[in-house]
Task: structure prediction
Amino acid sequence: MERVDVAIVGAGAAGLSLAHRLERVLSGRSVVVVETPDAGLRPPERTWCFWEAPEGEWDAVVSHRWHALSVVGPDGTTWRSPTDPLVYKMVRSRDFEALVRDGLRRVRTLCGTVTGIADGPEEAVLRLRGSDGADTELAAGLVFDSRPPRGFPAGAVTLRQHFRGWFVRTDRPRFDLSAAVLMDLRVPQPDRGVAFGYVLPFDSRTALVEYTEFTRDVLDDAGYEEALRDYTGRLLELGVFTIIGVEQGVIPMTSARLPTRAGRRVYRIGTAGGATRPATGYTFAGAQRQTRQIAAALAEGRTPGRCPAHRRRHLLMDTVLLRGLDDGVIDGAEFFATLFRDNPLPRLLRFLDGTTGPLEELAIGAHTPVPTMLTALWAQIRPGQHGRSGDTQS
Result:
């Protein structure tokens, strides 16, 4: 049985980010990335967006950037603001993966589907199934597992951020290049949760246009198609256009606590390790913070600790929001419209990225529907009163 110092399970954003960092700090230790040969188990090509300082670690593969964002309220009122000193950036997964893989010299890739991990006091043993169906084992001093979670505990509030986007090219200039549309809340709203449009213009005729919901249940193909046809036609009035690409995904937004450490030798990273911000579904930035902490600990010869991607008080705030949306006590469209209307955008972006202080967060909280938020908080902390939110989500 082969033995390595570190095994990284999965080659998505979190797994490759950790491999990229360990390549640079663990020169004397063996590291492998275990990647499934089963195409059906690998995530499809996608885009990741995040906001950060103008100069960033992944600028070599940033395909587009925007210096202003806008939000459109349910009544059509538009609030627009520069993001300065931050920049909203997009990275395509294929470019990110190519850059990281090209830079790996000591970290190697091993093809196999992980069918089980046996934790132990000195090492963990991974059971692997190859493309030929043969089973093998790999022992590792530490395992960092980035596979998506299979479910969440009963009692957790879990919504899904589910979306479908079209990369479109119109027959004439239709898009405003000066700002990306972060949320267009004019779309029809669900009874519980929130729905919105999202527009990232690449040039005056080309953009990514998405329809997104934060709800319990995903739509079928016909539902997404109908929603996107309505949004691009009735609301955006794009006229004649060609769909040149499609993007679709489901991101769990959960109040469940997802600790990084899962055993004596096993850690979870990425969405499974709590890198996704529950209130927004943004994951890429959280995965970067998490993998930096892990790499720093290993470089210093320490065992990684909790390596949290988000602060506990922010997770509590997110839990209250999810509870209110799921129980129907918070009007999602009005909530987000008010949040962006009444707060400076750079401060709000820093809050959503977890870098604000308590006083700034109190100022933000003052512009939320306090009575309904308190109702949602009471529903969350009241024992045995979880209602529909107590179902286990998979």
About this structure: Residues 385-394 have pLDDT under 50 and may be disordered.
